[in-house]
Request: fold
Amino acid sequence: MLSRSAPDTREGSFVCSDTDGVFYDTSALLPGIEESDEEPMVYYFTPVHYIKNTLGYAVLKRRMTERKGLDEVFSLWLRNIETSLEMIRVRNKLMSYSEKDALTGLYNRRGMERWIKERLKTDEGQAVSVFIIDMDGLKYINDNFGHKEGDIAIRAIAAALQSAEGESETVARIGGDEFCMISLCDISAEEKQKVIAVAIERANAFAGKPYPVSASISHASGSLLPDMLEKLISQADGKMYLNKKQKNQHRG
Reply:
């Protein structure tokens, strides 16, 4: 069974999914179909769906001498497959909701912790840096421009962090105005912090708002270990409070 959308035949040698409009070459529906058998075979292509959700299609292969087509056994098997795939789809969707921040689409803390567990399987002991990015002036934005503008500013910071995210990194929103980036990249933490700062400065310039879109950044480094996250976040938070204090003193 192939995990493609159920096809509708169209002109020529193409079929087209009626759900997303993607065209397929019919030779890709079942690769090697012409070379796979010495004797003629009959192939039955049937859609796999659950109510209105298209899940793919199944292919039943029979000899020309067989009189059976799409019998009850195949139909029962297909219904079981459809129900199982729909349950998996719903489970994955619910899991995604439980691990993602609804406002920004970033991981929440749970999603970030799962990412770490996955990386521990292959990268345990590798050098890691944890960056805490704390928005500046969210309360000021909410109080003076409204919570809708506050949400816009939060999403602007999130987008900036995503633009600075590398392949061996992940970003999460771990509080109302607090973000965390975990980095296994090769560059130093100091260089990465500059990359993050530049991305936020660009977001501020692009936003063109009457308020600044800015954030304070701090980091802590260590080794990727099962118990490292809270320790490094705590260290980075301590540095963050000092950074905030220095910013406020400078403004004063």
Summary: The chain has two domains: 7-99, 109-251. The longest helix spans residues 72-99. Strands lie at 7-9, 14-17, 23-25, 41-50, 53-63, 127-135, 169-173, 178-183, 215-223.
